[in-house]
């Protein structure tokens, strides 16, 4: 679980040192895992996330707004084990999130509508405001 959490923290914050720590942790257990990988389910999930592909999805919008809720519900309706999802609220809270994940500072709601930024390795597609388009 620790390796998986370190990987997610790395993707959320953009800090590669967390991913390096997760790699060292997985390597430390490699000899124990090799003969019985099914006994180490969470470590296998972490390894799967580490080797990718993975997604970073940022939802920028007003907290509690219907369009923001629709984006989040669309993500919750799918099984997305390779996705790290971050909510970037509009307003004062945006600065707090940006202090943890600096790459979200420029990701804001377009024309006041909840907006999804779907990224692979921090390279983002064009932002979208439609939940169905986000899921594609």
Describe this structure in words.
- This protein is an alpha+beta fold.
- The chain folds into two domains: 2-51, no CATH class; 55-135.
- 47% of the residues lie in helices and 16% in strands.
- It is built from seven helices and four strands, in the order H-H-H-H-E-H-E-H-E-E-H.
- A four-stranded mixed β-sheet has the order 2-1-3-4, with helices on both faces.
- Strand 3 and strand 4 (123-124) form a beta hairpin.
- Helix 1 packs parallel to helix 4 (41-51) and helix 2 (16-28) packs across helix 4.
- The relative contact order is 0.16.
How are the SSEs ordered, and which strands pair?
Elements: H1 2-13, H2 16-28, H3 30-33, H4 41-51, E1 55-61, H5 66-76, E2 83-89, H6 93-100, E3 115-120, E4 123-124, H7 131-135
Parallel strand pairs: 1-2
Antiparallel strand pairs: 1-3, 3-4
Helix pairs in contact: 1-2, 1-4, 2-4
What is the gist of this entry?
With 136 residues, the protein is of the alpha+beta class.
Radius of gyration: 16 Å
Given helix and strand content, the structural type is: alpha+beta
Global morphology: elongated
Total separate domains: 2
Q: Give me the strand/helix succession.
A: HHHHEHEHEEH
| Terminal CA distance | 29 Å
Helix content: 40-55%
How do the strands line up in the largest sheet? 2-1-3-4
Q: Quick check: average pLDDT?
A: 92
State the helix count.
7
Main beta-sheet annotation: 4 strands, mixed
Low-pLDDT residue intervals, each spanning 5 or more residues: none
Question: How much of the polypeptide forms β-strand, as a percent range?
Answer: 15-25%
Q: How many beta-strand runs?
A: 4
């Amino acid at each position: 679980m620790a390796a998986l959490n370190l990987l997610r923290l790395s993707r959320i914050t953009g800090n590669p040192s967390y991913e390096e720590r997760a790699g060292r942790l997985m390597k430390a257990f490699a000899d124990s895992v090799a003969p019985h990988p099914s006994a180490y389910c969470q470590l296998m999930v972490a390894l799967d996330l580490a080797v990718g592909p993975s997604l970073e999805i940022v939802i920028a919008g007003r907290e509690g707004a219907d369009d923001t809720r629709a984006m989040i519900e669309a993500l919750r309706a799918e099984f997305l084990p390779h996705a790290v999802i971050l909510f970037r609220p509009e307003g004062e809270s945006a600065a707090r999130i940006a202090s943890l994940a600096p790459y979200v500072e420029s990701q804001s709601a377009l024309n006041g509508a909840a907006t999804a930024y779907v990224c692979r390795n921090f390279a983002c597609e064009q932002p979208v405001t439609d939940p169905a388009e986000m899921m594609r």
